[in-house]
Amino acid sequence: MQILQVDGLSHSFGERDVLRNLSLSIAAGESVALLGANGSGKSTLLRLVAGLLTPTAGQIALVGSAAAAGRPEVGIVFQESRLLPWRTVLRNVTLPLELAGESLSSARATAEAALKRVGAGGLLDRNPAEISGGERGRVALARALVRRPSLLLLDEPFAALDAITRARLDDELPELVAGAATLLVTHDVAEALLVADRVLVLGSDGAIQLEVPGLRGQPATGRRAALLSPDGAARQTRLYAALDSVSHA
Amino acid sequence: MRRLSQLTPLAVAALLLSAWEVAVRIFAVPQFILPAPSVIAVRFAEAWADGTMLRHLVPTVTEVTIGGLLGGALGLLIGVTLGLSGSARRVVSPYLVAAQSTPILALGPVLVLWLGPGLAAKVAVCALITLFPVAISTLVAVRDVDAGTLELMRSLGATRWQSLRYARLPAARSGILAGARVAATLAVVGAIVGEWLGGTAGLGVLLNLARGSLFDTPLLFADLLQIAIVGVSAYALVLLFERVSSKKIA
Ligand SMILES: Nc1ncnc2c1ncn2[C@@H]1O[C@H](COP(=O)(O)OP(=O)(O)OP(=O)(O)O)[C@@H](O)[C@H]1O
Ligand SMILES: [Mg+2]
Question: Where are the alpha helices (DSSP H) in chain A?
Fold first, then answer.
């Protein structure tokens, strides 16, 4: 079953065409990584899918119906964690449920479970200002997961993290997302291959330019080794070459 | 270190008061020009003992409370509305700025003319003088909430009202309260000036009485002390509300 089906999508900001006739689809539970140069339109694509922008042309179907802001089938993690500083960690994660009219006590139980799953179960009563960047990333992920979305949009969620924290989250990500399909924007070719079933490159023409299979299907322990195998290295080389042509276009 | 910084303001006050006391005695300043702090303290206690102070305090506190709350609530409403709506802001804010730079107190005589010398005119002066700082600080704070936070709220399916309640107001809280602090002390000024324009009781009326018919300068100063206490209390109440509300917001 397709969770996301994008057809002939175009978007312009005034005179500036960002996406042009882009098509892509993501199946249930599938993980797709999106690479592309700065300003190529990756965040714009996520905003369109999340219904935060209205496309100039084209269709976006999410679980069969048109994209719209706030649909519970979609969870989004922005590059900055965007936690509300006046709420505790737990209350940041209950927020989506409170907005949906759920009682605080049942929202608490759900949020606690989500925080435990992303490894932030010990932070419940802390303030966002008192936790590390990696912990904030986990909390933002828990907030995006708490409505049990079938599609998770991740916009460079780990960009601000140190290499070790980031590697750990990359390894855990397939388990953390709990079966949701994911569309991950990243600038890191190795990260893209590690966490995704398919890696896409957004070209300078505003459409998908290249698709390379990722390594997510491999068992967790073998993934990093596969990255360095001749086949993994070849995939990395193709992606780097595509990115290189994009950024010189 | 901490204890020292808490003691310093008290020490400075003690020093200034002693200097005042000593200077008045050395230069033998006449009491009707500048009474010594000790004389003022005694007169202050007397005025409380014989009921004068309380009789004049009650109307002033009433005016400040009603007028301040009324003006604060209206200011909040206007500020939130203008903070949310760019088109309303473009139409109304020039008038808001113009009104803010008009001395509201000069409207006092007009208000007394319209509303009579009773409570209503004084409440109106208090309300008008508190309204503008609260409205403007609220407008700015509500308008300037981080765009990323608002986008997050939209992504979570928040309605406009929920965005206001869960994101804009909490984010704007400290900005709004900064306006409220200014407004609290202005409300006291408004009440005193309103009372000068007419009336039979109030700390402003007492100022006139002490200076004029009674010719009681120590009472005049005791009254000033009382007014200062009311002003500081109003300010402290806003601070208290700030503390309490910071634990309550969500
Ligand atoms: N709200 C907006 N108004 C006008 N132009 C915009 C807006 N948002 C993005 N753009 C422009 O659209 C283009 C694509 O932006 P987008 O943020 O999608 O890029 P990106 O691929 O996410 O880049 P990065 O890797 O730097 O995050 C950029 O040229 C940007 O300047
Ligand atoms: Mg981006």
Answer: 42-49, 89-99, 104-117, 133-145, 163-176, 189-195, 220-228, 230-248
Say what the ipTM of the complex is: 0.90
Q: What is the percent of chain B where pLDDT is above 70?
A: 97
Ligand 1 pocket check for A42: Cβ under 6 Å: yes
Tell me what pLDDT residue A79 has.
86
Indicate yes or no: CB of B155 within 8 angstroms of CB of A100. no
Q: Which ligand is nearest to the CA of A44?
A: 1
- The per-residue pLDDT for range B9-21, each reduced to its tens digit, is 889 999 999 999 9
Say if A217 falls within a structural domain: no
Check whether residue B140 and residue B105 sit in a common domain.
Answer: yes
In a domain, A19, yes or no: no
Residues B84, B181 within the same domain: yes
Residue range(s) defining the domain that contains residue B129: 35-248
- A59 in any annotated domain: no
Max mean pLDDT range (A131-135, B220-224, B244-248): B220-224
Task: Concatenate the DSSP letters of all residues of B152-176 into one string.
Answer: HHHHTT--HHHHIIIIIHHHHHHHH
**Backbone phi and psi for residue B33, each to the nearest 5 degrees, phi listed first:** -95, -60
Q: Number of folded domains in chain A?
A: 1
> What residue owns the CA closest to ligand 1's atom 2?
A13
Same domain, B13 and B88: no
